[in-house]
Amino acid sequence: MVLIIGGAYQGKTEAALEIAGEEPDRVMNRVHEWIRGRMDAGAGQDEIREELFGIAECRKDMIFVADEIGCGIVPVDVFERKYRETAGRILCDLAKQADEVYRVMAGIPGKIKG
């Protein structure tokens, strides 16, 4: 499993597709938005983590792509703070399990694990 993180519009998708090569269906883009959608639907952190790790278990070659959302001002809104914390914690857990982790900045993927 591979995790690619970075700021918005930094080239994460392009890096993921390059790693995927001839298998673009390996890429699960916008994981942070998927987490938010599950929270909007009422799912808790443990349930979301279980679902995401279930996907990772079924597709060990999956490439997960997510924006870093915790590198800014702490939101005033309670839900936004909870979302930021939930996404951050789940992505930390995903990084621990990943074989490789990349951080993309200005279109340049830097390997930080694996």
The percent range for strand residues is 15-25%
Order of strands across the main sheet? 2-3-1-4-5
Give the overall shape, derived from the CA principal axes: globular
Secondary structure tally: strands: 5
Summing up helix and strand content along with how strands pair, one would put the structural category as alpha/beta
Enzyme class: transferase
Catalytic activity: adenosylcob(III)inamide phosphate + GTP + H(+) = adenosylcob(III)inamide-GDP + diphosphate; adenosylcob(III)inamide + ATP = adenosylcob(III)inamide phosphate + ADP + H(+); adenosylcob(III)inamide + GTP = adenosylcob(III)inamide phosphate + GDP + H(+)
Pfam families: CobU
Function: Catalyzes ATP-dependent phosphorylation of adenosylcobinamide and addition of GMP to adenosylcobinamide phosphate.
Write the layout of secondary structure elements.
Layout (H helix, E strand, L loop, with lengths): L1 E5 L5 H9 L6 E2 L2 H10 L4 H14 L4 E5 L10 H20 L2 E6 L2 E6 L1
Parallel strand pairs: 1-3, 1-4, 2-3
Antiparallel strand pairs: 4-5
Helix pairs in contact: 2-4, 3-4
Description:
There is one protein chain. The chain is α/β, with parallel strands linked by helices and 114 residues long. The protein has four helices and five strands; from the N terminus they run E-H-E-H-H-E-H-E-E. The protein has a five-stranded mixed sheet with strand order 2-3-1-4-5. A hairpin with a 2-residue loop joins strand 4 (100-105) and strand 5 (108-113). Helix 2 packs across helix 4 and helix 3 (45-58) packs parallel to helix 4 (78-97). The longest helix is centred in the last third of the chain and has 20 residues, at 78-97. The protein is globular. The termini are close together.
